[in-house]
Design a protein that fits this description.
Pfam families: DUF6901. The mean pLDDT is 90. The protein has a two-stranded antiparallel sheet with strand order 1-2. It has five helices and two strands. It has a domain of 107 residues. By secondary structure, it is mainly alpha-helical. Helix 1 packs antiparallel against helix 2.
Length: 162
């Protein structure tokens, strides 16, 4: 991203209220989270870091960050509290469906998932930069650990594909 076009990090701007809300909380606090969608509801008794991670992922992907925007097709079918296996499945399936439509348009598809691996490597870089910002500004660990949970998913996907 060029600083002239984006003087502020779109992710930081999009999640600042979330971060402020949880900056004095510990990641291990047990909570009950309810996620309401027009189609269904999800309820989980979980740690704050896991609940916050599910929300933070949506905020980050829909922030306008050009790197995270590559994951935006998955937001519509987001699965809160997903396991790593479910996330790998959803991500690879979504990507492969996109490649199929590319092929139908006469374009070259990426059946080996090389671009998907590159996307997640870039996401890891964004996560690392965000983690650096959070480490220097947070009183407690809920926000940073929620981001680390997301980064585990970003690291796991390329490893599962390779």
């Amino acid at each position: 991203m060029r600083k002239e076009q984006h003087p502020f990090c779109p992710i930081a701007q999009n999640i600042v209220q979330v971060l402020d809300s949880f900056e004095n909380d510990y990641s291990y606090e047990e909570i009950t989270v309810t996620v309401e969608t027009p189609i269904r509801s999800y309820v989980a008794k979980t740690s704050l870091q896991r609940g916050l991670s599910a929300m933070m992922g949506i905020y980050m992907v829909s922030s306008g960050c050009p790197i995270m925007a590559r994951l935006k097709p998955m937001v519509r079918y987001h699965l809160p509290f997903a396991t790593i296996e479910e996330t790998v499945y959803r991500s690879a399936s979504t990507y492969l469906l996109g490649q199929y439509f590319k092929m139908k348009k006469g374009l070259q598809p990426d059946w080996e998932l090389k671009e998907l691996i590159r996307i997640y490597q870039n996401v890891q870089q964004v996560n690392a930069a965000m983690a650096d910002r959070l480490r220097s500004s947070q009183a407690k660990d809920a926000n940073i650990n929620a981001l680390i949970v997301l980064d585990v998913f970003a690291k796991e996907l390329p490893q599962n594909i390779e």
